[in-house]
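SAMPLE LOG
Freezer: B-3
Tube label: C17
Construct: single chain, 367 aa
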Amino acid sequence: MFEVGKLIKKKTLGKIKRYIACGLICMLLLITGCGQGEGEQSSSSVQKEESDHLVVGFSIDSYLIERWQRDTDVFVAKIKELDSNAEVNLQNANGDIETQKEQIKYLIEKKVDVLVIVCIDSESLSGVVSEAKNAGIPVIAYDRLIKNAKCDLYLSFDNEKVGTLMGQALIDAGLPNKKVMMLSGPNEDNNVSLVEKGFRTVMNDNDVEIVDVYHTPAWKAEDAAAYVSEHLSEMDDVDAIMCGNDNIATMVTRTLSEARLAGKIKIVGQDADLEACQRVVEGFQVMTVYKPVEKLAQTAAEYAVALANGQTIDEVADAMTGTVSDGSYDIPYCYLDPIAVTKDNMDSTVIASGFHMRDEVYMNVTD
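STRUCTURE (predicted):
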């Protein structure tokens, strides 16, 4: 825009320049008036048209856990399928909560149309989520609940059921000493408490003692493995270890192998990582919980595009299942069912869905 005041104050300008300036100002006023008459557009809607495409902000914890790369790949592909001109601005916080906060603020400054967050700490993001919502940006909490934030939507799996499936698999496999260890994820992850709740219920119902619980900081599997290594002498009568995810299960299995305990202590995990699926069919892991992340990511993409385009949750609520409290607010909640995967149903679940190829899962099985 022209700065009219400066043009007038410069007395050294000649009359011709004054006439030119006035003429240009009049032309601009005419153009602006015509634009408002046709569309009644605000400055924000004009800026939206200038960007000419939908922008989705995606803030992710880290790629330390194998599944997150798959989630983001499927999410981006679905966004592109729904809107070929859309852009996904991915931000990886590498497991650091302060970095995630700064990255979310960056996405707010970039005026993304919708924000999807895989949070690191469920308790620490309510402030930046409020900033996003104050800026008119809808927020989706992906897989992990963000506490006291009033997100527009929370999508996840039934995490209490995940723990129930883990516990039941161990009961079915047999626990002669009725003693198990829990190597959970970090307390900052809201899903961890839900998984533990389901697991503990099954253990209590079957009079199984949980002899020890370790919460793995930032999901660092090597820390869980180190903890097991330090407590091997105390595990003579431990029947099984519940691992918070398959990455932890992988590192713990390696530690047990070095101590010649692999296969003797039963292992369960979740996420259906390739190595875990290989261990399941080889007999070194009782089960893994398969969570069809493709469906979760695709559903999240559908909601993200809808919210970015001004639709309400109710208008795209094919998968809605109700509400959940985030501690302060009841927010829309969409959850999917997890699936217990054992040697007996590996082919009909993980492989049939295309999650892993059969030759990869069975590569170490000779008979």
